[in-house]
Amino acid sequence: MSAPTTLEQPTAQPEPSKKNNGGSLKAYLGQNIQQYGMIAALLVIVAIFQVTTDGLMLNPDNIAALIQQNAYVFILTIGMVMVIVAGHIDLSVGSVVAFVGGICAVLITDFELSWPLAVALSVLVGGLVGCWQGFWVAYAGIPAFIVTLGGMLLFRGLAIVILDQTIAGLPGGFNDISNGSLPAALGYIGNLDGITVFIGVFAFVGLALAQIRARGELKKLDLHTEPFAAFIGKLVLSALAIGAITYLLASSAAGTPIVLIIVGVLVLIYTFLMNNTIFGRHIYAMGGNLPAAMLSGVKTKRVNFLIFVNMGLLAGVAAVVTTSRAGAGIAAAGTNYELDAIAAAFIGGTSVNGGIGKITGAIIGALIMGVLNMGLSIMGTDPAYQQVIKGLVLIAAVALDILNKRRGK
C-alpha cells in the first residue's frame, strides 16, 4: 500500500517592499480638501475685500489692528478646540472673560497691585473657574452644556457685581499688552521694521526645519508621508504667507503687535501639546470613541477635568487681553465671545461630533471671522447684516464637515 500523497502548500512569498513615496498628490489633496478649502476660502475672502474696499483691507496698519482686535478669538479658540474635540462645549467663556477682567481691573486700581502681579493672579482665577466647572463635568457627571450654561449666567452676574461701574485709568504698561508693539530694537531695513523682519525669517526657518525633521522621522520609521510635491508646496505657500504678513507688519506704523507674540507662543505650545503628548492623544481618543478610550485605560475623568481647567486659564489670558485692549474693566466685556470661539473652531475644521480638529485649522477659522468683521466694517455694513453673514458662513462650514464625513463612508 503506497503512502498517501500530500499536497505541498506553496510557501507565502513576502511582497517586495515598496518605497514610501507618500502616495499620489491627487489622493492627498482629496483627503485634506477641508483643510486646504479653508485656506483657499480665507484667501478668496481677503481678495474680495481688498477689491471692494479699494485696497484698504491689506493696509499695513489695518493688518496690525486685525490682530489686536481679534486676539481674544485666537486665544479662546485654542481652548475651545480641545473642549470640542473631547466631545464637549463651553458656553461660559465670554462671561468668564468679563468676570476675570473685572477682577484684574480691581486688583490694579483698588488693591494697588503691580500690573504684572495682577495679570498673574487673574490668569490663576481663570484656572480656578476652570476647576469649578471641570469638577461638575468630570466628577459629578453633569453635561458640559448645562454646567457652562450655568457658568455663563453665574459669572456674568458676578462680573456685574464686581464692576458696578466701569473701572478705567489702568497703567500704560498693562494697556500695551494689547495696544502696544515691540520696540524697533534692530532699527529699520529701508522702511521695514528690523525686529519684525527678523521674527518673520526666524518663524519660517523654524517651521521649515520642524517640517523637514518630522518628515525625516516618518520616513525613518517607514510610515506614511505626504507626497513630496505637496511637502514642497506647503513650504512654498508657508514662505509666501509668512513673507506677506511680515512685510505688511514691518511696513505698519508700529511694527509687530505684542499680542501677536502671545498668540504665537500659545499656538506653538498647544499644537505641540495636541500632536506630541499623551494628554493630547487622550483628548482625541475620547472624542473619537469614548467607550474604547475608557477600555484602553484613559483616565477620562482626569482628562475632562484638565480640559476645563485649561479652558479657564485661557479665558483668563483672554480676559487680560480684552481688558488691556479696552483700557478698562467693563461688565459687558466678553459678550458673545463664546460664539466667536465656537464658530472659529467649526469653521477651521473641528468636527461637531468630536475627535477631529487642529489648533492651526481653528486659527484659520478665527482669521476668517476676523477678516469678515474688519472687511464688513470698512465697507460700512450694518452690524445686523454682519451677524447674518457670519451665521451663514458658520452653517456652510458645518455643512461641509458633514458632507465630507458622508462622502468618506
TrEMBL record:
Keywords: Cell inner membrane, Cell membrane, Membrane, Sugar transport, Transmembrane, Transmembrane helix, Transport. Residues 1-22 are annotated as: Disordered. The chain crosses the membrane at residues 33-51, 63-84, 91-109, 115-137, 144-168, 188-210, 231-250, 256-273, 303-321, 359-378. It is a multi-pass membrane protein. GO terms for cellular component: plasma membrane. InterPro entries: ABC_transp_permease. GO terms for molecular function: transmembrane transporter activity. It comes from the Bacteria. Part of the binding-protein-dependent transport system for D-xylose. Probably responsible for the translocation of the substrate across the membrane. This is Xylose transport system permease protein XylH. It comes from Actinoplanes utahensis.
